Amino acid sequence: MYGLKSRQRGSSAVSWLFYLLIGGLLLSFAVKVVPFYMDDHSVQQVVSSLTDRPGSATASVTQVRTWINKGLQLNLIKLDRNEVKVTRENGVVAVDIDYERRIHFFHNVDLVLTFEHNWKAGTQ
Fold first, then answer.
1. Which whole-number Å values give the CA distances from 7 to 13, 45, 59, 97, in the listed order?
2. What is the pTM for the complete model shown?
3. Distance between the two ends of the chain, CA-based, in angstroms?
């Protein structure tokens, strides 16, 4: 028993390579996904800023769309026109932003991130 204990001194080289592989995959995942969540946070700020705008409850659909486009442009975020829907329902302006982003992770593995934001004048 005494001789066996002196030979056990921590992780082997194979286990260290495994740890490095897992760490590399996690780092790669973070580097590819975090920027999209940062952009989504900016989109959320643009949507929530509509509540603080004077006259947002009585603004037209065109005016609200202009405010959203300016906020997105200021944050360097590109959304297609069909991903941002601004409508008037029962006299209340409603904003629905639904979009998804696809990220190539490795080989034939892709990640799909979906985001959704809703806003109605006078409800937030």
1. 15, 58, 76, 61
2. 0.79
3. 70
